[in-house]
């Protein structure tokens, strides 16, 4: 995607609930990228710009849970919850069925218990597959006086499925947005959030009175090895800059084989999220710190890794990148 959505100013008290389809079909590709990677990339771009005053929650279904009882609350609606939701996204892997009605019931039971209006953003590439009735579930919530708008983003759906989800969005007082190419999801987020999403001005970061921020990989050691999986433990340390106190460590894992990138990566970034094989994040407090990350790769391929240091006091901002390191097998 060429750029993140423009986000104008608005009140800092909005509530957002994301429903993410993590069924098996989200592993299918659109324009060469998995549907899940496209959805996560746009969610992260949006969430990274939210004010800490916003309340954010996350629900998903599928995620390697078999059967039709896979809807789970991955993060309750909490003020300043955007960073935690970004962290949860990294662990969601598509596999399973599509229990939309049960998911709506879960949202109504646990996340719509206040009088404050909630914006629900539902990203899906399919319709109900568990014999539920999503329309009935939505009407029950509306009859109970729940205040919400259901915005539905449908990824690469056929005409019949789009008709079904358009009807669902209308009953939910929202709109349906069709995604047929990767840029469409950016346009959908732009339309949904342009009139309603706050933006904040981050604290000014200056390096005139201090050393530049940096992050260093201290060591990468084999942790365990099997025929189909090689696990590594990576130790790192970082130096931030004042007045920033909250940081995020972002792990990049990618194939050493030269793969044409989807687009030029942003400044200081190793690659765009969609071009990475694996990512992980850790959150740290304090201007200086150290830590470790454990991750697993396919031993039949050759992998490289790097780290990024982000400031997350306000709008997340990348400060530094480590050297790129080759993973040495046993």
Summarize the amount of helix as a percent range: 10-25%
The arrangement of helices and strands along the chain is: EEEHEEHHEHEHEHEEEEEEEE
Q: Tell me about the biggest sheet?
A: 6 strands, mixed
- Report the portion of residues in β strands: 25-35%
Alpha-beta classification: alpha/beta
What value does the average pLDDT take? 84
Distinct helical segment count: 6
Which keywords apply here?
20% helix; 330 residues; 5-stranded antiparallel sheet; disordered N terminus; alpha/beta; 35% strand
Question: Strands, helices and their partners?
Answer:
Blueprint: E1 15-22, E2 29-30, E3 33-34, H1 35-47, E4 55-62, E5 72-79, H2 82-89, H3 100-110, E6 118-124, H4 134-143, E7 148-155, H5 159-171, E8 176-179, H6 182-193, E9 214-226, E10 229-239, E11 246-255, E12 278-285, E13 288-297, E14 303-311, E15 317-321, E16 325-326
Parallel strand pairs: 1-4, 1-6, 6-7, 7-8
Antiparallel strand pairs: 2-3, 4-5, 9-10, 10-13, 11-12, 11-14, 14-15, 14-16
Helix pairs in contact: 1-2, 1-6, 3-4
């Amino acid at each position: 995607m060429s750029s993140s959505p423009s986000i104008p100013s608005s009140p800092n008290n909005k509530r957002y609930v994301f429903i993410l389809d993590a069924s098996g079909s989200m592993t299918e590709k659109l324009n060469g990228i998995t549907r899940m990677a496209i959805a996560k990339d746009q969610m992260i771009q949006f969430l990274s710009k939210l004010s800490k005053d916003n309340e954010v929650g996350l629900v998903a279904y599928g995620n390697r849970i078999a059967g039709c009882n896979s809807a789970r609350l991955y993060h309750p609606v909490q003020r300043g919850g955007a960073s935690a939701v970004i962290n949860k996204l990294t662990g969601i892997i598509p596999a399973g069925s599509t229990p939309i009605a049960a998911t709506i019931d879960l949202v109504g039971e646990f996340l719509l218990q206040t009088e404050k209006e909630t914006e629900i953003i539902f990203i899906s590439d399919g319709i109900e597959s568990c014999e539920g009735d999503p329309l009935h579930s939505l009407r029950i919530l509306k009859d109970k006086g729940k205040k919400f708008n259901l915005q539905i983003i449908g990824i690469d759906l056929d005409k019949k499925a789009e008709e079904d989800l358009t009807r669902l969005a209308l009953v939910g007082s929202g709109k349906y947005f069709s995604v047929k190419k990767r840029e469409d999801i950016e346009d959908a987020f732009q339309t949904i959030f342009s009139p309603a999403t706050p933006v904040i001005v981050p604290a000014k970061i200056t390096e005139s009175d201090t050393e530049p921020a940096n992050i260093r990989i201290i060591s990468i050691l084999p942790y365990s090895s099997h025929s189909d999986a090689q696990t590594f433990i990576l130790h790192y340390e970082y130096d931030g800059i004042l007045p920033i106190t909250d940081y995020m460590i972002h792990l990049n894992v990618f194939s050493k084989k030269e793969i044409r990138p989807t687009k030029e990566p942003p400044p200081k970034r190793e690659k765009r999220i969609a071009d990475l094989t694996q990512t992980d994040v850790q959150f740290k407090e304090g201007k200086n710190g150290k830590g470790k990350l454990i991750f697993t790769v396919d031993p039949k391929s050759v992998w490289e890794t790097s780290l990024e240091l982000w400031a997350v006091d306000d709008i997340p901002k990348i400060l530094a990148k480590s050297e790129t390191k080759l993973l040495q097998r046993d």
